Structure formats: structure tokens, C-alpha cells
Amino acid sequence: MNNSQSSDPIEQCNDLLASGDSSAALECIDAILAACPNSAEAWRLRGSALVAMQLSNQGLECFEKSLKINPQSAVSWVSKGQVLAELGNNDEALDCFEKATDLSPQLSAAWAHKGFSLVLRGELEQGLECYALAVERDSTLLKPLSGMRSDALAALGRIDEALACIDEVLADNPRDVEALGNMASLYLSVEDFDTARGFIERALKENPESSALWSLKGMIILESSGAEAALSSLDRAIELDANCISALGNCGLALANLERYEESLRYFDRILEINPIDPLVWANRARTLVGLNRNREAVNSCDRALDLDSNNALAWISKGAALVNLEHYEDAISCCESGLELDPSQRPGWLARSIALRQLGREEEANASLEKAMKFRVGFDGSVISVSL
């Protein structure tokens, strides 16, 4: 349907949004709001248009205005939750999705997004239950949710089920780009890099203009062949989409691993211009600052990450490394232990803890910590911290 076929202004705006003409939709919506400033639906649509134009914070304000007028709109709660999740505020997003499922238990989108938020919080079984409820209400969601379902199953160690989940989609369409990308991501997660490369190459053959796929290829190369080899794929992703957050982040990690810290920092700062409330980016930024020996700034960056997510293991460990360099050894040990309690596989945490213990003359404990560090493989996302004394 085009907008000439509808006399309802709200339907016209919906049609424009569906066609991808966000600017025209915004003009249409603003005309509605000029005549009817208390239209909750118009405010919701305005938020959707702004989000489509990558103006997420302004979109969020519109969703909040819509809900102030009509707090019983489950669809508006889902819209608000989606933008909060995009901005990295998962706990508040989950609250929105829970309100939506309470208000409208048959709304499949609310269950799907609630499932994703639960998975992000590590509540994997509950997330899978929500995905099942979403598909039960709308069977067409089976394919779109296959990647998220497989990720949750893989995280639970149910690899065969995860593979079967995506195989179901590929059996129906062997050239399905999303499924091929999801398969590449899954094989990356189990460190089967050759198979992951095979699937990402098949996906790129189908869609060579996808920044997300080039970013994933860069991540696979980063893990399997090293940082230098990954940069060309990551650069291609950014060339296709200058705001591709995954590619910007992976570039930052790759450059930090090459000890090109100033360049790395610029990538993390660029991400924070787009989304200033992502705790993982603040933590990665801190690691880069440690590499530059800008340790007080690193501590501040870690504190910002921990304000956003107190369970961010990387932030605790990065703060511990910075505090070692600042010679605050007791505090450094405490921070490292907080991080290692959350994620015992973080080799840099054991290394920083070992150095702090040694400086305090606690040689036996330092040696034990160093021994634990040696048990873990150095991955691209766990080898940036360099503690210098």
C-alpha cells in the first residue's frame, strides 16, 4: 500500500516508515502532533522514525512521552525496551519487555525481546523459554530467532542443539545469509576457525556489501590468525558502514594487540560517541589507556564501566592493572579478585594479581596466581592489558 491509498494520517506514517522513508514519515508525524499533541501513537511513531535515522536518544524521549500519555501500550513498552537495549541498558530494557508481556501476553515481539535480554543477563534457560513462547504465538519468528536461540544453546554447552537450530533454516534455504552468518559465529564460539571461515565466505558470496559479515570475518581472523591479518576485513566493514559498532570495537582490539594504542583509543572513543552507555566499551577503552600508561584515566574509565555494570569482569581486571601501575597494590588485588570471581578465565587478571602480590612480598601467592594465568589461552579479547612497573 502507498500513502495515497489511505486517508488515515497514522496509517500514512506507518506506510512511510515501512517503505524506509523515515524523513517523510517524520514530517507526517510532526503534522499530526501539531494538531494533536497528546497522541500517544504519534509520539511512538515519531520515536520509531528517529531511531531509524540513528537518533536513538531522541527516539527514546519520544517513547517516554508516548508512555506518559498511555502507559498501557504494550507496543510502546517494547519500542522503548528495544532502544534501551540498543544503547546497552539491558536491565531497564528487560523491565520494559516484562511490562509489555504483562500487559499483552499474546504479543510475540515482547516475548522475543524479553528472551534476548534474559540471555544477555546470563539467564539462558529463561531466555529460551521466552523464545519458545514467542514462536508459539507467531511461528514466522522461528527463522529470525534461530541465531539467538543457537547462541543461548551454545552458551549452555548444547552445541548439537545449537547447530540443529540453524541447520533447520539452511535446510530450507542453503543460501540464507543470516543463517550462514549465525553458523560462522557459532563455529567461532567453539574455536573451529576453518569451518567458521567456510561459512562466512559463503555468507559474503551472497551479500558482499554487509558490514556485519565483514566485521564477523575480521573477528574470525583476529582469533585464528592474529590482529594484523584481521584489519583489512575490519576496514572493509567500516568502509561500508562508518558506524558499524562491532567493526569499530574489533579494530580497537586488534590495534591494541598490535600495541598501536593511540589508534585503538580513537576507535573506542568513536563508539562512545555513538553509544556512551556501553560498559564493555568503557572497559576496553581502559585497557588501551593502561597500555598508554595513562593509568588514572584508565581507572576513571573502569569506574564508568562499573557504574553501568558492576558485574563487568573486564572492568574490574583493567582497574586492577591500572592500580598496579599506580602502586596501589592492595586495591589492585581486590579489583583483580572481583573480576576473577566473575570470570576465572581472564588471564590478565591472574597476571596483574601476581605482580601486585609479588610487590607486597607474598611470593608463594604470586607464584600460584602466575601458574593459574598460564593455564589460559591468550585470546584477542583477553591479551591487551600490559602491566608495567
Could you please describe the fold and organization of this structure?
It contains 22 helices and no strands. By secondary structure, it is an all-alpha fold. The longest helix is centred in the N-terminal third of the chain and has 14 residues, at 22-35. The termini are far apart.
Structure characteristics:
22 helices, disordered C terminus, 389 residues, mainly alpha
CATH C-level label of the domain at 277-389: Mainly Alpha
CATH architectural group of the domain at 277-389? Alpha Horseshoe
Question: Which structural class fits the helix and strand makeup?
Answer: mainly alpha
In this structure, how is the largest beta sheet organized? none
Question: What is the H/E order?
Answer: HHHHHHHHHHHHHHHHHHHHHH
Mean pLDDT: 90
CATH fold-level name of the domain at 277-389: Serine Threonine Protein Phosphatase 5, Tetratricopeptide repeat
Note poorly predicted spans: 378-389
Please, how many helices?
22
Shape: globular
CATH superfamily of the domain at 277-389: Tetratricopeptide repeat domain
Helical proportion, percent range: over 70%
Number of strands: 0
Strand content: under 5%
**Spatial separation of the terminal alpha carbons:** 67 Å
Radius of gyration: 23 Å
